[in-house]
Specification:
The chain is mainly beta. It folds into two domains: 57 residues, no CATH class; 103 residues. Helix content is 12%, strand content 36%. It has two helices and ten strands, in the order H-E-E-H-E-E-E-E-E-E-E-E. The strands form two sheets. An eight-stranded antiparallel beta sheet has the order 3-10-5-6-7-8-9-4, with no helix packed on it. The chain has a two-stranded antiparallel sheet with strand order 1-2. The mean pLDDT is 82.
Length: 176
């Protein structure tokens, strides 16, 4: 039981952890947990053992840093002129895997289409936001790492591919 003298604790290791009422050194709190998604390490000076809280925090910090380095989302705007022929392809320059696509037909200033492939490939669903209708009329290629993805328009409708209409698409995705 703590007596207020800044030294006496509930167990024999209390003095190593608490030096006074206002200073709790939590670096060495023993964590009885074996993580599956990170590796505790005694690399920081504050960690004397892999079961120390500091070792776990260091492992989490390293894992988050690696995750951040592996995710590189970027946004690009691509413009194209509709062909009026099914099979029109549009290269999504700088994007290897599209996660969100927003299409706008600037010729009629009204048609908005959204697709959320979430990094997927093959046929994707898109939704006409003006008509609240969902379609499967577009597809995405599956390029190797470092290569731009290609959007194929398997339609001739105004939302995607009317002959001579100018379109802008905003694509958010994994960078090449």
């Amino acid at each position: 039981m703590y007596t207020g003298d800044g030294e006496t604790g509930v167990c024999g290791t209390w003095k190593a952890v608490v030096r006074d009422v206002d200073d709790l050194d939590g670096d060495h709190v023993d964590i009885d947990y074996t993580p599956g998604n990170y590796t505790p390490a005694t690399t920081p000076a504050e960690a004397a053992d892999v079961d120390d809280l500091a070792a776990h925090l260091y492992g989490i910090d390293v894992a988050l840093g690696e995750l951040e380095d592996s995710i590189s989302l970027k946004a690009v705007t691509v413009s194209y002129t509709g062909s009026g022929s099914s099979g029109k392809t549009v290269t999504l320059t700088g994007i290897n895997r599209a996660h969100w696509i927003l299409s706008f037909n600037s010729s009629n200033n009204s048609v908005l289409v959204i697709a959320v492939p979430a990094g997927g490939t093959g046929t994707i669903k898109d939704r006409n936001l003006n008509a609240s209708t969902t379609y499967t009329r577009t597809s995405l290629s599956a390029p190797a790492a470092g290569v731009s993805q290609v959007l194929t328009l398997n339609t001739t409708v105004g939302q995607w591919n009317t002959s001579g209409d100018l379109y802008y698409i905003l694509v958010i995705g994994t960078s090449t």
